[in-house]
Write a structure and sequence with these properties.
The protein is an alpha+beta fold and 132 residues long. It is built from 4 helices and 6 strands. The protein has a 6-stranded mixed sheet with strand order 2-1-6-5-4-3. A hairpin with a 4-residue loop joins strand 3 and strand 4. It comes from Pseudomonas abyssi.
């Protein structure tokens, strides 16, 4: 998938590596001082921590990528990725349609900030609201 915007391509490549999961490759798209914040305000120090966190929350998880939107700023590009998550909970139940929105800041060819929101926490607390 080729994008006309370089920052969108960087985010897309990062997401592909993250879903592999290949945290070593994913980290190459991030600045050394990247700020990563997951739903609930949970700080993650690196791509490796994202993989470890997801391994504890899911048996496996992937993203069905939706669209990418971006806006240019003076010194960085903000990229939004939205879509849904699908996978399997640790107890073996499958899920799909779990909405996500990720916001990235890309500076000088590297992701410097990543913010993640999704329905997982709500679905874990109230499984009856999760749609198959």
């Amino acid at each position: 998938m080729g994008f006309e915007n370089k920052a969108v391509q960087i985010v897309s490549d990062f997401l592909a590596a993250s879903m592999a999961p290949d945290p070593v490759l994913a980290a190459t798209f991030m600045a050394d001082d990247v700020r990563i914040t997951f739903t609930g305000g949970r700080a993650m120090p690196s791509a490796h921590e994202i993989t470890a966190f997801n391994a504890g929350r899911y048996s496996w998880v992937k993203k069905q990528l939706g669209q990418f939107d971006w806006t240019e700023h003076a010194d960085h590009t903000v990229v939004y990725s939205n879509g849904t998550l699908y996978g399997e909970w640790p107890d073996g139940r499958t899920f799909s349609g779990n909405r996500y929105l990720d916001r990235f800041e890309v500076r000088d060819g590297k992701i410097t900030r990543m913010d993640v929101w999704n329905d997982s926490a709500e679905w874990i607390l109230s499984p009856e609201i999760a749609r198959p």
